[in-house]
Amino acid sequence: MTTLTKLTSDFDFLTGHFDVAHRVLQPTGEWKEFTGTCTGRTHFDGGVSIDEARFAGGYGLSLRLYDPADENWTIYWVNSKTGKLQPPVRGKWTDGVATLYGEDDLGDRMVPVRLRWSDITEETAHWEQAYSSDGGETWETNWTMDLTRRTTEPPPLDLPKVTGDFDFFVGSWDVLHRRLVSPLTGSDEWREQSGSTSEAYTLFNGAICVDEVTLPADGAHGMTVRLYDVAAGAWSIYWISSRRGVLEPPVHGGFGADGIGVLEGPDEHEGRPVDVRFRWTTGDVPVWEQFFSVDDGATWESNWTMTFTRQGE
């Protein structure tokens, strides 16, 4: 088991279940009030915070990543209606208040946005969103959430299930790694390592899959966030290292009728541009495999496999 050094506890307060009172500013100037719930958890011993919000008609996901280099947080939002990452906000905590800035996509235009967390106690918290129409000189609050801790898990939403592609992966796993020591060099030297574990779960009734894996050889943890794009009918998969606290470039794709998942995208390896392919083989003992290509996908070199055995079996 790889033990991480705890770098932050900024969002540990959000771990658990909450009732949420929403107030949203309407175009008429009136405020609309409604209620919902959310459930939060942390990864990387506090370096990643995730919460799933539930409200009438859908889910929302906040993904918060702590960058140890500059002690800033980057926060992404995902709406279950699209399954796509929205543009991030970025900022940090000062004197008990988190203030983060970015741009929000309103469809026809981008608008400056400010998010704030404040009034944090063991049982309650306050969040608010504001837009600016003058480049950040002034701000108008348009959405607030007041969270109150609850003792029971909120009920699930009664919404149609759009995918169950990664439901097979939910649970606790022992992981056997097999890695090519020097990819793209012609070497055929592989290194195997056991002692790794993974914990996986789904959100949005299967349309998001998250897992955290221990990497003892690297002295780190890794985390994968998988988002299902409803319109495209495809997955986007993002990798996060506990060392960096940033989303790596995604791969995109899906599962065929044979149950094999293939996803591809551009990346870099040691400063060299590469195309990356992930391949998932499902079943009682799932296998994930990574490939690199340097000839625009004409040929692929396998460089890493993870074989998952469910714990207790």
UniProtKB/TrEMBL annotation:
It comes from the Bacteria. InterPro entries: Sialidase_sf. SUPFAM superfamilies: Sialidases. This is DUF1579 domain-containing protein.
